[in-house]
Amino acid sequence: MALMGQMMAMPLLISSLIKHAARHAGDTEIVSKRVEGDMHRYNWRAAEKRSRQLAQALARLGCQAGDRIGTLAWNGYRHLEIYYGSSGSELVCHTINPRLFPEQVAWIANDAQDLVLCFDLTFLPLVEKLATQMPSIKHFILMTDRAHMPAQTSLAGLLCYEELIEAEDGAYTWPDFDENTASSICYTSGTTGHPKGAVYSHRSSVLHAFGSALPDALGCSARDVILPVVPMFHVNAWGLPYSCAIVGCKLVMPGPHMDGKSLFELFEAEGVTFSAGVPTVWLGLLTYVKTNQLKFSSFKRTVIGGSACPPAMMKTLIEDFGVEVIHAWGMTEMSPLGTVSTLNAKQAGLSADAQRRLLEKQGKAIYGVDMAVIDDDGHALPWDGVSAGNLVVRGPWVISSYFGQSTSPLISVDGVPGWFPTGDVATIDDEGFMQITDRSKDVIKSGGEWISSIDLENIAMAHPDVHEAAVIACAHPKWDERPLLVIIKKPGAELSREQVLEFFEGRIAKWQIPDDVQFVTELPHTATGKLQKLKLREQFKAHRLPGT
Ligand code: ADP
Fold first, then answer.
1. Residues 200 and 45: beta-carbon distance below 8 Å
2. Ligand 1 pocket residue status of 33, Cβ below 6 Å
Protein backbone atom coordinates (compact mmCIF):
# COMPACT_ATOMS: atom_id res chain seq x y z
CA MET A 1 0.00 0.00 0.00
CA ALA A 2 1.21 3.49 -0.79
CA LEU A 3 2.58 5.49 2.11
CA MET A 4 0.82 8.84 2.29
CA GLY A 5 2.71 12.12 2.74
CA GLN A 6 2.37 13.74 6.13
CA MET A 7 2.39 17.40 5.19
CA MET A 8 -0.28 19.94 6.14
CA ALA A 9 -3.22 19.96 3.77
CA MET A 10 -3.44 23.73 3.49
CA PRO A 11 -5.61 24.79 0.57
CA LEU A 12 -3.99 27.05 -2.05
CA LEU A 13 -6.17 30.14 -1.76
CA ILE A 14 -5.93 33.55 -3.42
CA SER A 15 -6.31 35.27 -0.03
CA SER A 16 -2.96 33.74 0.95
CA LEU A 17 -1.26 35.82 -1.74
CA ILE A 18 -2.37 39.19 -0.44
CA LYS A 19 -1.92 38.11 3.18
CA HIS A 20 1.69 37.28 2.32
CA ALA A 21 2.21 40.60 0.52
CA ALA A 22 0.68 42.57 3.42
CA ARG A 23 2.87 40.78 5.96
CA HIS A 24 6.16 40.73 4.03
CA ALA A 25 5.93 43.71 1.68
CA GLY A 26 3.45 45.75 3.69
CA ASP A 27 4.99 49.14 2.98
CA THR A 28 5.76 48.44 -0.70
CA GLU A 29 3.77 50.81 -2.88
CA ILE A 30 0.85 50.32 -5.22
CA VAL A 31 0.52 53.42 -7.39
CA SER A 32 -2.48 54.02 -9.63
CA LYS A 33 -3.39 56.64 -12.17
CA ARG A 34 -7.05 57.19 -11.46
CA VAL A 35 -9.90 57.64 -13.88
CA GLU A 36 -10.66 60.75 -11.82
CA GLY A 37 -7.39 62.19 -13.21
CA ASP A 38 -5.07 62.17 -10.17
CA MET A 39 -2.56 59.68 -8.79
CA HIS A 40 -3.34 57.38 -5.88
CA ARG A 41 -0.64 55.82 -3.70
CA TYR A 42 -0.87 53.29 -0.93
CA ASN A 43 0.75 49.95 -0.12
CA TRP A 44 0.09 46.20 0.06
CA ARG A 45 -0.86 46.45 3.75
CA ALA A 46 -3.57 49.02 3.02
CA ALA A 47 -4.70 47.05 -0.06
CA GLU A 48 -5.22 43.95 2.04
CA LYS A 49 -7.20 45.84 4.69
CA ARG A 50 -9.45 47.47 2.11
CA SER A 51 -9.95 44.08 0.38
CA ARG A 52 -11.20 42.75 3.72
CA GLN A 53 -13.52 45.75 4.08
CA LEU A 54 -14.83 45.06 0.59
CA ALA A 55 -15.45 41.41 1.47
CA GLN A 56 -17.51 42.63 4.43
CA ALA A 57 -19.43 45.10 2.24
CA LEU A 58 -20.24 42.44 -0.36
CA ALA A 59 -21.47 40.09 2.37
CA ARG A 60 -23.64 42.92 3.75
CA LEU A 61 -25.20 43.28 0.29
CA GLY A 62 -26.21 39.64 0.54
CA CYS A 63 -23.55 38.04 -1.65
CA GLN A 64 -23.01 34.37 -0.91
CA ALA A 65 -20.39 31.78 -1.85
CA GLY A 66 -20.27 31.30 -5.61
CA ASP A 67 -21.98 34.59 -6.52
CA ARG A 68 -20.40 36.40 -9.44
CA ILE A 69 -19.06 39.94 -9.05
CA GLY A 70 -18.70 41.54 -12.47
CA THR A 71 -16.23 44.34 -13.20
CA LEU A 72 -15.93 46.86 -16.00
CA ALA A 73 -12.74 48.58 -14.97
CA TRP A 74 -9.23 49.67 -15.91
CA ASN A 75 -6.05 48.66 -14.13
CA GLY A 76 -6.19 50.33 -10.73
CA TYR A 77 -6.09 49.75 -7.00
CA ARG A 78 -9.86 49.43 -6.57
CA HIS A 79 -9.96 46.75 -9.26
CA LEU A 80 -7.16 44.96 -7.37
CA GLU A 81 -9.22 45.11 -4.18
CA ILE A 82 -12.17 43.57 -6.04
CA TYR A 83 -9.91 40.75 -7.28
CA TYR A 84 -8.93 39.89 -3.70
CA GLY A 85 -12.04 40.94 -1.79
CA SER A 86 -14.38 38.88 -3.96
CA SER A 87 -12.27 35.74 -4.59
CA GLY A 88 -10.90 35.78 -1.03
CA SER A 89 -14.42 35.63 0.39
CA GLU A 90 -15.50 32.72 -1.83
CA LEU A 91 -17.19 34.94 -4.42
CA VAL A 92 -16.17 34.82 -8.07
CA CYS A 93 -14.52 37.79 -9.74
CA HIS A 94 -15.78 38.20 -13.28
CA THR A 95 -13.79 40.75 -15.28
CA ILE A 96 -15.63 41.93 -18.38
CA ASN A 97 -13.80 43.50 -21.30
CA PRO A 98 -15.36 46.96 -21.75
CA ARG A 99 -13.97 47.25 -25.26
CA LEU A 100 -16.35 44.57 -26.53
CA PHE A 101 -19.52 45.56 -28.35
CA PRO A 102 -22.15 46.67 -25.78
CA GLU A 103 -24.41 43.74 -26.72
CA GLN A 104 -21.53 41.35 -25.98
CA VAL A 105 -20.91 42.97 -22.58
CA ALA A 106 -24.56 42.37 -21.67
CA TRP A 107 -24.48 38.86 -23.14
CA ILE A 108 -21.45 37.94 -21.02
CA ALA A 109 -22.90 39.44 -17.79
CA ASN A 110 -26.06 37.41 -18.39
CA ASP A 111 -24.23 34.22 -19.23
CA ALA A 112 -22.20 34.48 -16.01
CA GLN A 113 -25.34 35.57 -14.10
CA ASP A 114 -23.47 38.39 -12.36
CA LEU A 115 -25.13 39.54 -9.14
CA VAL A 116 -23.08 42.70 -8.66
CA LEU A 117 -21.40 44.97 -11.21
CA CYS A 118 -18.53 47.21 -10.14
CA PHE A 119 -17.47 49.78 -12.73
CA ASP A 120 -15.22 52.77 -13.29
CA LEU A 121 -16.64 56.25 -13.95
CA THR A 122 -15.68 55.88 -17.63
CA PHE A 123 -18.33 53.22 -18.06
CA LEU A 124 -21.29 54.94 -16.37
CA PRO A 125 -22.99 55.77 -19.72
CA LEU A 126 -22.43 52.20 -20.97
CA VAL A 127 -23.86 50.64 -17.79
CA GLU A 128 -26.85 53.03 -17.79
CA LYS A 129 -27.57 51.96 -21.36
CA LEU A 130 -27.23 48.22 -20.66
CA ALA A 131 -28.75 47.95 -17.17
CA THR A 132 -32.15 46.73 -18.27
CA GLN A 133 -30.53 44.07 -20.46
CA MET A 134 -28.67 42.57 -17.47
CA PRO A 135 -31.50 41.41 -15.19
CA SER A 136 -29.32 39.25 -12.91
CA ILE A 137 -27.45 42.31 -11.61
CA LYS A 138 -28.98 43.43 -8.33
CA HIS A 139 -26.32 45.92 -7.23
CA PHE A 140 -24.44 48.48 -9.29
CA ILE A 141 -21.32 49.86 -7.60
CA LEU A 142 -19.56 52.90 -9.02
CA MET A 143 -15.84 52.63 -8.25
CA THR A 144 -15.33 56.15 -6.96
CA ASP A 145 -15.89 58.43 -3.95
CA ARG A 146 -18.95 60.47 -2.98
CA ALA A 147 -17.57 63.65 -4.60
CA HIS A 148 -17.50 61.98 -8.02
CA MET A 149 -20.90 60.31 -7.86
CA PRO A 150 -23.23 61.56 -10.61
CA ALA A 151 -25.93 64.04 -9.58
CA GLN A 152 -28.38 62.12 -11.71
CA THR A 153 -28.42 58.59 -13.05
CA SER A 154 -30.96 56.14 -14.39
CA LEU A 155 -29.40 53.40 -12.22
CA ALA A 156 -31.72 52.97 -9.27
CA GLY A 157 -29.88 52.57 -5.96
CA LEU A 158 -26.43 53.15 -7.47
CA LEU A 159 -23.86 52.45 -4.75
CA CYS A 160 -20.66 54.35 -4.07
CA TYR A 161 -17.58 52.12 -3.70
CA GLU A 162 -15.77 54.33 -1.18
CA GLU A 163 -18.88 54.64 1.00
CA LEU A 164 -19.24 50.88 1.07
CA ILE A 165 -15.61 50.50 2.16
CA GLU A 166 -15.80 53.25 4.79
CA ALA A 167 -18.83 51.64 6.41
CA GLU A 168 -16.79 48.51 7.29
CA ASP A 169 -14.13 48.05 9.98
CA GLY A 170 -12.04 45.35 8.29
CA ALA A 171 -12.44 42.98 11.24
CA TYR A 172 -12.75 40.05 8.90
CA THR A 173 -10.76 36.84 8.70
CA TRP A 174 -10.21 35.34 5.27
CA PRO A 175 -12.09 32.04 5.28
CA ASP A 176 -10.62 28.63 4.45
CA PHE A 177 -12.41 26.53 1.84
CA ASP A 178 -11.74 23.99 -0.91
CA GLU A 179 -8.92 25.15 -3.18
CA ASN A 180 -10.86 23.88 -6.20
CA THR A 181 -13.55 26.53 -5.61
CA ALA A 182 -13.97 28.96 -8.53
CA SER A 183 -12.03 32.21 -8.03
CA SER A 184 -12.65 34.11 -11.24
CA ILE A 185 -14.10 33.91 -14.73
CA CYS A 186 -12.77 35.34 -18.00
CA TYR A 187 -14.51 35.10 -21.32
CA THR A 188 -12.67 34.48 -24.58
CA SER A 189 -13.09 37.29 -27.06
CA GLY A 190 -15.48 35.26 -29.16
CA THR A 191 -13.91 35.92 -32.55
CA THR A 192 -15.92 32.88 -33.66
CA GLY A 193 -19.39 32.44 -32.15
CA HIS A 194 -20.35 33.56 -28.66
CA PRO A 195 -17.64 34.20 -26.07
CA LYS A 196 -16.98 31.26 -23.77
CA GLY A 197 -16.22 31.45 -20.05
CA ALA A 198 -13.02 30.00 -18.57
CA VAL A 199 -13.55 29.41 -14.84
CA TYR A 200 -10.32 29.53 -12.83
CA SER A 201 -10.00 27.96 -9.41
CA HIS A 202 -8.01 29.16 -6.39
CA ARG A 203 -5.67 26.25 -6.88
CA SER A 204 -5.10 26.93 -10.59
CA SER A 205 -4.59 30.66 -10.00
CA VAL A 206 -2.07 30.18 -7.18
CA LEU A 207 -0.13 27.53 -9.12
CA HIS A 208 -0.13 29.75 -12.20
CA ALA A 209 1.16 32.67 -10.12
CA PHE A 210 3.95 30.46 -8.71
CA GLY A 211 4.91 29.12 -12.12
CA SER A 212 4.82 32.43 -13.94
CA ALA A 213 6.89 34.31 -11.34
CA LEU A 214 9.88 31.94 -11.76
CA PRO A 215 13.16 33.45 -13.06
CA ASP A 216 12.94 31.69 -16.43
CA ALA A 217 9.27 32.49 -16.83
CA LEU A 218 8.35 36.14 -16.22
CA GLY A 219 11.00 36.48 -13.53
CA CYS A 220 9.19 38.84 -11.13
CA SER A 221 11.16 40.00 -8.11
CA ALA A 222 10.71 42.14 -5.01
CA ARG A 223 13.25 44.53 -6.54
CA ASP A 224 11.08 45.14 -9.60
CA VAL A 225 8.63 47.92 -10.24
CA ILE A 226 5.98 46.26 -12.39
CA LEU A 227 3.51 48.05 -14.63
CA PRO A 228 0.99 45.72 -16.26
CA VAL A 229 -0.18 47.43 -19.44
CA VAL A 230 -2.12 44.30 -20.24
CA PRO A 231 -5.57 45.08 -18.84
CA MET A 232 -6.96 43.37 -15.75
CA PHE A 233 -9.93 42.41 -17.95
CA HIS A 234 -7.61 40.48 -20.31
CA VAL A 235 -6.97 37.10 -18.66
CA ASN A 236 -6.40 38.68 -15.22
CA ALA A 237 -3.60 40.88 -16.60
CA TRP A 238 -1.73 37.64 -17.32
CA GLY A 239 -1.84 36.82 -13.61
CA LEU A 240 0.39 39.75 -12.59
CA PRO A 241 -1.91 40.99 -9.80
CA TYR A 242 -1.30 37.57 -8.21
CA SER A 243 2.40 37.01 -9.04
CA CYS A 244 3.28 40.56 -7.92
CA ALA A 245 1.75 39.74 -4.51
CA ILE A 246 3.85 36.56 -4.25
CA VAL A 247 7.07 38.51 -4.73
CA GLY A 248 5.80 41.69 -3.04
CA CYS A 249 7.02 44.16 -5.66
CA LYS A 250 5.91 47.73 -6.31
CA LEU A 251 2.93 47.77 -8.64
CA VAL A 252 2.11 50.65 -10.98
CA MET A 253 -1.34 50.80 -12.56
CA PRO A 254 -1.92 53.00 -15.61
CA GLY A 255 -5.72 53.32 -15.36
CA PRO A 256 -7.24 54.27 -18.69
CA HIS A 257 -4.09 56.14 -19.80
CA MET A 258 -2.39 53.71 -22.15
CA ASP A 259 -1.20 55.96 -24.98
CA GLY A 260 2.56 56.23 -25.64
CA LYS A 261 3.04 59.60 -23.90
CA SER A 262 1.15 58.72 -20.71
CA LEU A 263 2.90 55.37 -20.43
CA PHE A 264 6.36 56.84 -20.98
CA GLU A 265 5.78 59.51 -18.34
CA LEU A 266 4.51 56.95 -15.85
CA PHE A 267 7.45 54.60 -16.55
CA GLU A 268 9.87 57.44 -15.81
CA ALA A 269 8.05 58.96 -12.81
CA GLU A 270 7.68 55.64 -10.99
CA GLY A 271 10.95 53.95 -12.03
CA VAL A 272 9.22 51.06 -13.80
CA THR A 273 11.63 48.17 -14.49
CA PHE A 274 9.28 45.58 -15.94
CA SER A 275 6.11 45.63 -17.99
CA ALA A 276 3.81 43.40 -20.02
CA GLY A 277 1.51 43.96 -22.97
CA VAL A 278 0.42 43.04 -26.49
CA PRO A 279 2.55 44.15 -29.47
CA THR A 280 0.21 47.01 -30.47
CA VAL A 281 0.85 48.74 -27.15
CA TRP A 282 4.59 48.76 -27.76
CA LEU A 283 3.98 50.03 -31.27
CA GLY A 284 2.37 53.15 -29.74
CA LEU A 285 4.98 53.58 -27.01
CA LEU A 286 7.93 53.11 -29.38
CA THR A 287 6.54 55.57 -31.90
CA TYR A 288 6.26 58.15 -29.11
CA VAL A 289 9.76 57.65 -27.70
CA LYS A 290 11.36 57.58 -31.15
CA THR A 291 9.54 60.65 -32.42
CA ASN A 292 10.54 62.60 -29.34
CA GLN A 293 14.06 61.10 -29.18
CA LEU A 294 13.59 59.88 -25.62
CA LYS A 295 15.32 57.12 -23.67
CA PHE A 296 14.01 54.97 -20.83
CA SER A 297 15.98 55.40 -17.61
CA SER A 298 14.72 52.44 -15.55
CA PHE A 299 12.82 50.14 -17.94
CA LYS A 300 14.78 46.85 -18.31
CA ARG A 301 12.45 44.04 -19.41
CA THR A 302 9.09 43.49 -20.95
CA VAL A 303 6.85 40.54 -21.66
CA ILE A 304 5.23 40.65 -25.08
CA GLY A 305 2.48 38.21 -25.95
CA GLY A 306 -1.13 37.87 -26.97
CA SER A 307 -0.01 38.02 -30.63
CA ALA A 308 3.32 37.23 -32.23
CA CYS A 309 5.96 39.82 -31.35
CA PRO A 310 7.38 41.04 -34.69
CA PRO A 311 11.17 40.43 -34.72
CA ALA A 312 11.70 44.04 -35.85
CA MET A 313 9.99 45.28 -32.68
CA MET A 314 12.12 42.96 -30.55
CA LYS A 315 15.28 44.22 -32.27
CA THR A 316 14.36 47.88 -31.69
CA LEU A 317 13.59 47.31 -28.02
CA ILE A 318 16.82 45.39 -27.44
CA GLU A 319 19.25 47.33 -29.61
CA ASP A 320 17.92 50.88 -29.49
CA PHE A 321 16.53 50.94 -25.96
CA GLY A 322 18.37 48.17 -24.09
CA VAL A 323 15.06 46.58 -23.08
CA GLU A 324 15.08 42.79 -22.84
CA VAL A 325 12.05 41.24 -24.56
CA ILE A 326 10.42 38.11 -23.15
CA HIS A 327 8.22 36.62 -25.83
CA ALA A 328 5.39 34.62 -24.28
CA TRP A 329 2.44 32.65 -25.57
CA GLY A 330 -0.78 31.64 -23.89
CA MET A 331 -4.52 31.97 -24.00
CA THR A 332 -7.58 32.67 -21.86
CA GLU A 333 -8.15 28.94 -21.49
CA MET A 334 -4.63 28.62 -19.99
CA SER A 335 -4.80 31.33 -17.28
CA PRO A 336 -2.94 32.39 -19.67
CA LEU A 337 0.74 31.44 -19.54
CA GLY A 338 1.96 28.49 -21.62
CA THR A 339 5.40 29.16 -23.06
CA VAL A 340 8.14 31.73 -22.52
CA SER A 341 11.21 32.28 -24.64
CA THR A 342 14.21 32.25 -22.32
CA LEU A 343 17.66 30.77 -22.86
CA ASN A 344 19.55 28.13 -20.92
CA ALA A 345 23.29 28.39 -20.20
CA LYS A 346 24.28 26.67 -23.44
CA GLN A 347 22.01 28.86 -25.58
CA ALA A 348 23.18 32.02 -23.83
CA GLY A 349 26.64 31.26 -25.25
CA LEU A 350 25.41 31.36 -28.87
CA SER A 351 26.04 34.29 -31.21
CA ALA A 352 23.69 37.26 -30.82
CA ASP A 353 21.92 36.33 -34.07
CA ALA A 354 21.42 32.70 -33.06
CA GLN A 355 20.13 33.82 -29.66
CA ARG A 356 17.65 36.15 -31.26
CA ARG A 357 16.35 33.46 -33.58
CA LEU A 358 15.43 31.44 -30.49
CA LEU A 359 14.04 34.41 -28.58
CA GLU A 360 11.78 35.29 -31.50
CA LYS A 361 10.00 31.96 -31.08
CA GLN A 362 7.15 31.66 -28.57
CA GLY A 363 9.45 29.60 -26.34
CA LYS A 364 9.56 26.67 -23.98
CA ALA A 365 6.67 25.35 -21.90
CA ILE A 366 6.96 26.52 -18.32
CA TYR A 367 6.73 23.88 -15.60
CA GLY A 368 3.06 22.96 -15.24
CA VAL A 369 2.31 23.01 -18.96
CA ASP A 370 2.61 19.93 -21.13
CA MET A 371 2.39 20.47 -24.89
CA ALA A 372 2.39 18.54 -28.16
CA VAL A 373 1.87 19.19 -31.85
CA ILE A 374 -0.40 16.70 -33.58
CA ASP A 375 -1.58 15.88 -37.08
CA ASP A 376 -5.24 15.89 -38.11
CA ASP A 377 -5.57 12.25 -37.01
CA GLY A 378 -4.50 13.01 -33.44
CA HIS A 379 -0.96 11.62 -33.70
CA ALA A 380 1.94 13.46 -32.08
CA LEU A 381 4.44 14.97 -34.51
CA PRO A 382 8.21 14.99 -33.91
CA TRP A 383 9.92 17.91 -32.15
CA ASP A 384 12.12 18.72 -35.14
CA GLY A 385 11.39 22.42 -35.66
CA VAL A 386 9.74 21.81 -39.04
CA SER A 387 6.75 19.48 -38.54
CA ALA A 388 3.85 21.91 -38.14
CA GLY A 389 0.67 20.68 -36.50
CA ASN A 390 -2.17 21.53 -34.18
CA LEU A 391 -0.89 22.60 -30.80
CA VAL A 392 -2.48 20.87 -27.78
CA VAL A 393 -1.79 21.43 -24.08
CA ARG A 394 -2.67 20.10 -20.65
CA GLY A 395 -1.89 21.09 -17.09
CA PRO A 396 -3.35 22.23 -13.78
CA TRP A 397 -4.11 25.76 -15.08
CA VAL A 398 -5.64 24.66 -18.40
CA ILE A 399 -9.46 24.46 -18.61
CA SER A 400 -11.17 21.08 -18.74
CA SER A 401 -14.57 22.54 -19.75
CA TYR A 402 -16.21 25.88 -20.48
CA PHE A 403 -18.65 27.59 -18.12
CA GLY A 404 -22.17 26.24 -18.54
CA GLN A 405 -21.27 23.86 -21.40
CA SER A 406 -21.79 20.16 -21.10
CA THR A 407 -19.66 19.07 -24.05
CA SER A 408 -15.96 18.62 -23.37
CA PRO A 409 -13.52 20.54 -25.57
CA LEU A 410 -10.77 18.01 -24.80
CA ILE A 411 -9.33 15.54 -27.32
CA SER A 412 -6.99 12.52 -27.35
CA VAL A 413 -3.38 12.41 -28.47
CA ASP A 414 -2.18 8.98 -29.60
CA GLY A 415 -5.19 7.55 -27.77
CA VAL A 416 -4.54 9.35 -24.48
CA PRO A 417 -7.47 11.64 -23.58
CA GLY A 418 -7.37 14.98 -21.79
CA TRP A 419 -5.64 17.43 -24.13
CA PHE A 420 -6.94 20.92 -24.89
CA PRO A 421 -6.74 21.91 -28.57
CA THR A 422 -5.49 25.51 -28.71
CA GLY A 423 -6.53 26.28 -32.28
CA ASP A 424 -2.94 27.33 -33.00
CA VAL A 425 -0.63 25.73 -35.52
CA ALA A 426 2.97 25.36 -34.38
CA THR A 427 6.33 23.61 -34.62
CA ILE A 428 8.47 22.51 -31.67
CA ASP A 429 12.23 22.14 -32.10
CA ASP A 430 14.50 19.54 -30.49
CA GLU A 431 15.30 21.88 -27.61
CA GLY A 432 11.60 22.43 -26.89
CA PHE A 433 11.17 25.90 -28.41
CA MET A 434 7.66 26.19 -29.77
CA GLN A 435 6.91 28.50 -32.65
CA ILE A 436 3.41 29.50 -33.65
CA THR A 437 3.03 29.57 -37.40
CA ASP A 438 -0.58 30.66 -37.28
CA ARG A 439 -4.00 30.37 -35.79
CA SER A 440 -5.57 27.46 -37.64
CA LYS A 441 -8.22 29.79 -39.04
CA ASP A 442 -5.68 32.37 -40.27
CA VAL A 443 -3.24 30.06 -42.03
CA ILE A 444 -3.24 30.48 -45.83
CA LYS A 445 -3.89 27.25 -47.66
CA SER A 446 -2.27 27.60 -51.06
CA GLY A 447 -2.48 24.55 -53.33
CA GLY A 448 -2.42 22.14 -50.41
CA GLU A 449 0.58 23.87 -48.78
CA TRP A 450 0.32 26.11 -45.74
CA ILE A 451 1.69 29.62 -45.67
CA SER A 452 2.17 31.30 -42.30
CA SER A 453 0.55 34.74 -42.17
CA ILE A 454 2.74 35.55 -39.15
CA ASP A 455 5.97 34.93 -41.12
CA LEU A 456 4.83 37.29 -43.87
CA GLU A 457 3.71 39.96 -41.38
CA ASN A 458 7.06 39.75 -39.60
CA ILE A 459 8.93 40.39 -42.86
CA ALA A 460 6.67 43.32 -43.77
CA MET A 461 7.09 44.81 -40.29
CA ALA A 462 10.87 44.77 -40.76
CA HIS A 463 10.54 47.27 -43.65
CA PRO A 464 11.48 50.72 -42.33
CA ASP A 465 8.46 52.41 -43.96
CA VAL A 466 5.85 49.98 -42.61
CA HIS A 467 3.96 50.91 -39.44
CA GLU A 468 1.69 47.87 -39.21
CA ALA A 469 1.02 44.86 -41.44
CA ALA A 470 -1.59 42.12 -41.70
CA VAL A 471 -1.71 39.15 -44.04
CA ILE A 472 -4.97 37.41 -44.91
CA ALA A 473 -6.04 34.66 -47.26
CA CYS A 474 -7.64 35.83 -50.48
CA ALA A 475 -9.62 33.47 -52.71
CA HIS A 476 -7.72 32.25 -55.78
CA PRO A 477 -9.25 30.18 -58.62
CA LYS A 478 -6.19 27.94 -59.07
CA TRP A 479 -4.54 27.82 -55.61
CA ASP A 480 -7.69 28.12 -53.43
CA GLU A 481 -6.07 30.83 -51.33
CA ARG A 482 -3.17 33.20 -51.77
CA PRO A 483 -1.73 35.76 -49.31
CA LEU A 484 -2.85 39.39 -49.49
CA LEU A 485 -0.73 41.88 -47.55
CA VAL A 486 -2.47 44.89 -46.02
CA ILE A 487 -0.22 47.70 -44.81
CA ILE A 488 -0.32 50.96 -42.88
CA LYS A 489 2.64 53.07 -44.01
CA LYS A 490 4.67 55.17 -41.57
CA PRO A 491 3.58 58.82 -41.66
CA GLY A 492 5.07 60.58 -44.69
CA ALA A 493 6.59 57.39 -46.17
CA GLU A 494 6.57 56.85 -49.94
CA LEU A 495 6.11 53.16 -50.58
CA SER A 496 4.81 51.31 -53.63
CA ARG A 497 3.33 47.85 -54.01
CA GLU A 498 6.39 46.82 -56.07
CA GLN A 499 8.86 48.06 -53.45
CA VAL A 500 7.09 46.07 -50.77
CA LEU A 501 7.06 42.86 -52.82
CA GLU A 502 10.73 43.32 -53.72
CA PHE A 503 11.50 43.44 -50.02
CA PHE A 504 10.25 39.86 -49.70
CA GLU A 505 12.72 38.56 -52.34
CA GLY A 506 15.33 36.38 -50.66
CA ARG A 507 13.60 36.64 -47.29
CA ILE A 508 11.13 33.81 -47.89
CA ALA A 509 10.44 31.07 -50.48
CA LYS A 510 9.25 32.67 -53.73
CA TRP A 511 5.91 30.81 -53.76
CA GLN A 512 5.05 32.26 -50.34
CA ILE A 513 5.49 35.91 -51.36
CA PRO A 514 2.12 37.74 -51.15
CA ASP A 515 0.26 38.11 -54.45
CA ASP A 516 -0.84 41.65 -53.74
CA VAL A 517 -0.46 44.62 -51.39
CA GLN A 518 -3.16 47.02 -50.26
CA PHE A 519 -2.46 50.25 -48.38
CA VAL A 520 -4.89 51.35 -45.67
CA THR A 521 -4.90 54.02 -42.96
CA GLU A 522 -6.37 51.78 -40.29
CA LEU A 523 -6.43 48.08 -39.40
CA PRO A 524 -9.20 46.48 -37.32
CA HIS A 525 -8.20 45.26 -33.85
CA THR A 526 -10.03 43.04 -31.39
CA ALA A 527 -11.00 44.23 -27.93
CA THR A 528 -7.67 42.86 -26.69
CA GLY A 529 -5.59 44.68 -29.30
CA LYS A 530 -5.05 41.85 -31.77
CA LEU A 531 -5.47 42.09 -35.52
CA GLN A 532 -9.05 41.24 -36.37
CA LYS A 533 -8.45 39.06 -39.39
CA LEU A 534 -12.07 37.97 -39.74
CA LYS A 535 -13.13 41.57 -40.21
CA LEU A 536 -10.24 42.23 -42.57
CA ARG A 537 -11.15 39.19 -44.65
CA GLU A 538 -14.71 40.52 -44.91
CA GLN A 539 -13.38 43.94 -45.88
CA PHE A 540 -11.37 42.43 -48.73
CA LYS A 541 -13.88 39.73 -49.66
CA ALA A 542 -14.42 41.18 -53.11
CA HIS A 543 -10.73 41.87 -53.74
CA ARG A 544 -9.41 40.36 -56.97
CA LEU A 545 -5.78 39.35 -56.95
CA PRO A 546 -3.76 40.40 -60.01
CA GLY A 547 -4.08 37.90 -62.85
CA THR A 548 -7.34 36.37 -61.58
P1 ADP B 1 -8.68 35.81 -27.86
O2 ADP B 1 -7.64 36.37 -28.79
O3 ADP B 1 -9.61 34.85 -28.51
O4 ADP B 1 -9.24 36.82 -26.96
P5 ADP B 1 -6.71 34.99 -26.06
O6 ADP B 1 -6.46 36.36 -25.62
O7 ADP B 1 -6.82 33.93 -25.08
O8 ADP B 1 -7.98 34.87 -26.86
O9 ADP B 1 -5.68 34.66 -27.18
C10 ADP B 1 -5.09 33.43 -27.36
C11 ADP B 1 -4.49 33.32 -28.72
O12 ADP B 1 -3.64 34.44 -28.99
C13 ADP B 1 -3.60 32.13 -28.87
O14 ADP B 1 -4.34 30.97 -29.12
C15 ADP B 1 -2.74 32.55 -30.06
O16 ADP B 1 -3.41 32.36 -31.29
C17 ADP B 1 -2.58 34.03 -29.84
N18 ADP B 1 -1.29 34.32 -29.20
C19 ADP B 1 -1.06 34.57 -27.90
N20 ADP B 1 0.24 34.82 -27.68
C21 ADP B 1 0.87 34.71 -28.89
C22 ADP B 1 2.23 34.84 -29.33
N23 ADP B 1 3.22 35.16 -28.52
N24 ADP B 1 2.46 34.64 -30.64
C25 ADP B 1 1.48 34.31 -31.50
N26 ADP B 1 0.20 34.18 -31.14
C27 ADP B 1 -0.11 34.39 -29.85
1. no
2. no
pTM of the model: 0.92
Residue at 334 is within a domain: no
Measured in angstroms, how far is the CA atom of residue 439 from the centroid of ligand 1?
A: 8
CB burial readout 215-233, b (16+ within 10 A) else e: eebbbbeeebbbbbbbbbb
- Asked whether residue 342 is domain-assigned, the answer is no
Task: Say if ligand 1 is within 6 A of residue 104 CB.
Answer: no
Same domain, 398 and 293: no
pLDDT tens-digit map of 152-210: 999 999 999 999 999 999 999 999 999 999 999 999 876 556 889 999 999 999 999 99
Tens of pLDDT, residues 418-442: 999 999 999 999 999 999 998 888 9
Range of the domain at 164: 14-326
* One domain for residues 152 and 203: yes
Residues 31 and 69 in one domain: yes
Tell me the CATH number at 56. Answer: 3.40.50.12780
Cα separation, 206 vs 120, whole angstroms: 27
238 Cβ inside 6 Å of ligand 1: no
C-alpha dihedral sign at 320, 356, 215, 346: negative
Same domain membership, residue 454 and residue 384: no
Backbone dihedral region of 288: left (phi > 0), alpha (psi from -120 to 50 degrees) or beta? alpha
Count the neighbouring beta carbons within 10 Å of the beta carbon of residue 542: 7
Ligand 1 pocket, residue 329 CB under 6 Å: yes
Q: What is the mean pLDDT of residues 43-51?
A: 98
Q: Phi first, then psi: give them for residue 21, nearest 5 degrees.
A: -65, -40
Backbone angles phi, psi at 52, to 5 degrees: -65, -40
My answer on whether 89 and 130 are in the same domain is yes
Does 154 map to a domain? yes
* CA dihedral of residues 490, 493, 497, 498 (deg, nearest 10): -130
CA distance linking residue 347 with residue 362, whole number of Å:
15
Segment 390-418 mean pLDDT: 97
Contacts of residue 436, defined as CB under 8 A and 6 or more positions apart, other chains included, come to 308, 329, 362, 391, 424, 425, 426, 454
- Cα of 28 from ligand 1 centre, angstroms: 33
- What whole-number distance in Å separates Cα of residue 350 and Cα of residue 367? 24
Cite the active site residues: 188, 333, 445, 450
Centre of ligand 1 from the C-alpha of residue 51, in Å: 31
CA–CA distances in Å: residue 268 to residues 166, 238, 299: 33, 23, 8
